[in-house]
């Protein structure tokens, strides 16, 4: 026969149960907090990699400016050799950005940059050919027209970079109000770039 449980025993049992439940709840919250921080950090770092790839793509384009103008001035083929190196760097940065892209919109943006850049390179090579043949008049005329293509690509690169910034901020805002969210992520978010890098038409 089971003896009746005393009131004191029942109170102690209830208190013990509350302590256990509270302790388990705290442990679950700690686990949730660290797990959430781990997941968000991994995803945000991937977005940051995409942003850095977009930024380096823009830089690689800007670094190509000036070489054909310098070649026009002194005819030194060393300028064209350096231009070829920076073109290769741009292609590598473009491939890196394409590898990190994970949405159709991003891939379409990269494809457009690639298309415009191919047209730009083709036209720029015609300018170089004119200069090599000594036809500076036609070369200079076409050179002025090519500059428009450069700024078109530069603007596309800037738009792609802003796309990555917006994506990071939207992702952060979506999870910022969740329980257990990380509270020290401000240093991970890139500042918005309000303008293109300093480029003048005369040095393209």
Care to describe what's here?
It is rod-shaped, with a radius of gyration of 29 Å. It has helices spanning 7-62, 67-74, 78-100, 104-132, 136-175. It has 204 residues and is mainly α. It is built from 5 helices and no strands. Helix content is 76%, strand content 0%. It has one domain: Four Helix Bundle (Hemerythrin (Met), subunit A), CATH 1.20.120.
Entry keywords:
Four Helix Bundle (Hemerythrin (Met), subunit A), single chain, mainly alpha, rod-shaped, 204 residues
Summarize the structure.
The chain has 204 residues and is mostly helical. It contains five helices and no strands. α1 packs antiparallel against α3 (78-100) and α4 packs antiparallel against α5.
